[in-house]
Amino acid sequence: MNLSTAVRVIRASAVYDLVVTTAFALPWTVGLVFAGIGWGHGFLGLSGALPSTDQVFTVLFANLTGSLVVVWSVVRLLRPSLVLGVADTCARFLFALGMAWALAVGGSVILVGFLVAEVVWGLVQGVVVVSALRTGSGTRAPSAAS
User: Fold this and answer.
1) Which of 21, 36, 93, 142 could form a disulfide with 69 if both were Cys (CB 3.0 to 4.6 A apart)?
2) Does the record carry Membrane as a key word (predicted)?
3) CB 7: neighbour CB atoms within 10 A?
């Protein structure tokens, strides 16, 4: 695969991250996200524990994570590169590891959907980026106008 394909995948994964995580970035929106997750959990009759917005540290760490992912996504949208694609692929597998751990210790089964998305994006992006690196496409993306 070539550099332009890798850049498209890196940008697409950034858009996905923005859509999924933006509402986690602010204290007044994370409650809505947690409520929606709770509704889905109940509607589907799933097992496992859910996060609570009654816990200050739960909200704080959701906000910190959401804020970082939003900024990281914007960077990948504006300046996509193979280096950022490699870093993002590694981050996806770290997030997936955390989700797998949460499931193993009793977290809501609703996490499976998030876990599958992280692993799939990690695999797709990883394959495309490694392939572009192997073809000698370099580490810099074409200009944003490309």
Assistant:
1) 21
2) yes
3) 24
Indicate the range of 27-31, 46-50, 88-92, 129-133 predicted with least confidence. Answer: 46-50
Whole-angstrom Cα Rg for the chain:
17
Q: Specify the residue for token string 């890798």.
A: 6
Token pair of 39 as six digits: 């509704």
Annotated domain spans of the chain = 3-134
Buried b / exposed e along 11-27 (16+ C-beta atoms within 10 A): bbbbeebbebbbbbbbe
**Length of the chain (residues):** 146
Cα–Cα distance for residue pair 2/133, rounded to 1 Å: 9
Q: Phi then psi for 55, rounded to 5 degrees?
A: -95, 115
Write the pLDDT tens digit of every residue in 71-93: 999 999 999 999 999 999 999 99
Question: Residue 52: what residue type?
Answer: S
SS3 107: strand
